[in-house]
Design goal:
Helix 1 crosses helix 6. This protein starts with a helix and ends in a 5-residue tail after the last helix. It has about 210 residues and is mainly α. Helices cover about 75% and strands about 0% of the residues.
Length: about 210
């Protein structure tokens, strides 16, 4: 392939990636403002500064667009949240910081709104609920499981099944703090309440999986 053709293809790929990003950014704004049912492809096209025809070239339905947005946003959030240093010997410290970050993310108004939106849409479009679950919770548990398995191999934890342990830790950390906001109750727990919940989760987790229990 000659250099001019190669450069042209690269430019086309870059332009397509930019256009797709613009569409997702526009969709994010519209979904947050109007909810899933209230959003229209016309509104999204306007927010993304593209024609409706161009929008349908990239996404053939509102459901497909919402699913793509979920996959990008939740996976990116999970990667940032579960960026854990496997070589840090202070496992309690690593998990404590993770727990505090996790609750902080879960109680953000934007996340609560998204979660409500997905729950509302999942009954009619179960694939959306599955996409959210796989890109967010499942992916996060998988990342944490890898970290816990590494700590077991290093002799810092005594874990038979790191997948189960990862899911248990996430459940312990959430406590009641991340559920209440879904119902408009105690939407912003105090830092003290968050730290207390995480400290309790750490105690229970290490009582089961601390190396001293081996």
């Amino acid at each position: 392939m000659d250099p001019l053709t190669l450069a042209s293809e690269r430019e086309d790929t870059t332009q397509e990636a930019t256009k797709r990003r613009d569409i997702l950014n526009g969709a994010r704004q519209v979904f947050r403002a109007n909810g899933f049912d209230g959003a229209s492809m016309g509104d999204i096209a306007k927010a993304a500064s593209v024609s409706k025809g161009t929008l349908y070239v990239y996404f053939d339905s509102k459901e497909a667009l919402f699913r793509a947005l979920i996959d990008v946003d939740r996976r990116d959030a999970a990667e940032r949240l579960f960026d854990l240093d496997e070589n840090d010997p202070d496992v309690r410290g690593v998990l404590t910081r993770l727990g505090i970050r996790f609750i902080g993310m879960m109680i953000q108004p934007e996340h609560v709104s998204l979660l409500r939106m997905v729950i509302g849409a999942a009954e009619k479009f179960p694939a959306l609920g599955r996409a959210f679950f796989e890109a967010g919770p499942c992916y996060g548990v998988m990342r944490l499981s890898i970290y816990l398995a590494a700590q077991h191999a290093a002799g810092r934890l005594a874990i038979d099944d790191s997948d189960i342990a990862a899911a248990q830790f996430i459940g312990l950390v959430q406590g009641g703090l991340t559920k209440a906001p879904l119902f408009g109750v105690n939407e912003k727990p105090s830092r003290e309440a968050i730290e207390k919940t995480v400290a309790s989760a750490i105690r229970v987790f290490f009582a089961a999986y601390g190396q001293e229990q081996a």
